[in-house]
Specification:
There is one protein chain. Helix content is 31%, strand content 16%.
Length: 171
C-alpha cells in the first residue's frame, strides 16, 4: 500500500522525472557547448511554481552585466533570448494520475514545494551528466523570485542579500 507522505511523493515525482532525463540532458549538452553572445555573463535557470501537470516549469535566462535578459539578432551565437527547457513536454503528471496527486495533497503534503525541490535536484544531476561543469559562465538554478540560488559550479546554495544575482556578476 502506498504511503501518502512527503517521502512517497518525492519518490513518485523522481520516477516521473527520470523518464525525461535523456531529453533534458540532450538539451543541456547543446547549451553547455554553445557559443554565447559576448553580452551574456550569467546563466540563470529558474523553477516556476506552476506544478508538473502542464509541463516542466524550468526556464534558463541569459543575463548581461546589468542583470537583464540578453536579446540579440546575431545568428552566430546561441539563441537570442531565454530558453524554455523541455517545452515539448506537455505534462509530467498525466491526467490519469491527478487523483493520486490529490490524495497526497489531502494528506497534507506540500506538493508544489516538493516538486520544485525535486526539480532542482534533478536538474543539477542532469546538468552535471551533460557536462555543465565545463561551462565557463557563472550558472545558477533557483526557485523563481527566491533569495537563494544553487551555484552550479560550486555545487552549493548561496544566499543573495542584495537582489537577484547582483553580487554574482563581475564588478
Amino acid at each position: 500500500m502506498e504511503s501518502y507522505d512527503a517521502n512517497g511523493y518525492t519518490q513518485w515525482i523522481r520516477s516521473l522525472l527520470e523518464k525525461l532525463e535523456p531529453a533534458l540532458e540532450s538539451q543541456l549538452q547543446t547549451i553547455v557547448t554553445a557559443r554565447f553572445h559576448p553580452h551574456v555573463v550569467l546563466l540563470d535557470t529558474e523553477v516556476f511554481p506552476d506544478g508538473l501537470r502542464e509541463g516542466v516549469p524550468l526556464r534558463m535566462f541569459l543575463l548581461d552585466a546589468h542583470n537583464s535578459e540578453v536579446f540579440h539578432h546575431d545568428a552566430t551565437f546561441f539563441l537570442p533570448s531565454s530558453i524554455g527547457l523541455l517545452e515539448a513536454v506537455k505534462e509530467v503528471i498525466p491526467p490519469s494520475e491527478e487523483d493520486r496527486q490529490k490524495l497526497y495533497e489531502e494528506a497534507g503534503v506540500e506538493t508544489i514545494e516538493i516538486e520544485m525541490s525535486t526539480l532542482i535536484e534533478w536538474f543539477v544531476a542532469c546538468w552535471m551528466r551533460a557536462g555543465g561543469q565545463h561551462v565557463t559562465l557563472p550558472a545558477y538554478i533557483c526557485r523563481h523570485d527566491d533569495q537563494e540560488s544553487f551555484d552550479l559550479h560550486q555545487m552549493k546554495w548561496v544566499a543573495d542579500q542584495q537582489g537577484k544575482h547582483t553580487h554574482f556578476l563581475p564588478g
